[in-house]
Amino acid sequence: MELQLGLKAEFEIIVSPKDTAANYGSGSLKVFATPAMIALMEKTAMMCISDSLGKNQNSVGTEVQVKHLKATPLGEAVLCIAELIEIDRSKLTFRVEAFDNDGIIGEGIHKRFLIDEKQFMAKLNR
Of 14, 38, 96, 115, which has fewest CB within 10 angstroms of its CB? Predict the structure, then answer.
């Protein structure tokens, strides 16, 4: 499968204590944390392209521009949708959105860069 515009992925979680602002230290309330939402968005974008990557090929997150619009309580489902909207050589841009039972809770843009795992790790370990 080849990378192409319009690829989409969806991933859903149930907000648990590990996903809360109180746990992340990004706040003191037991609600879905902004860092947890961002991690969910990155994971969903990664899943979006996983079947299209070649051997030893991977992607790394390089930029996140999102708004967290609404709090979500413990035990509620959060669905994330990522769509590949731009390909510029090795730079990939995704539209990311997150929803709970009441509607949209977050939205924005996430960028990833395609890498060769072996070269990336060799350079990192020098």
Answer: 14
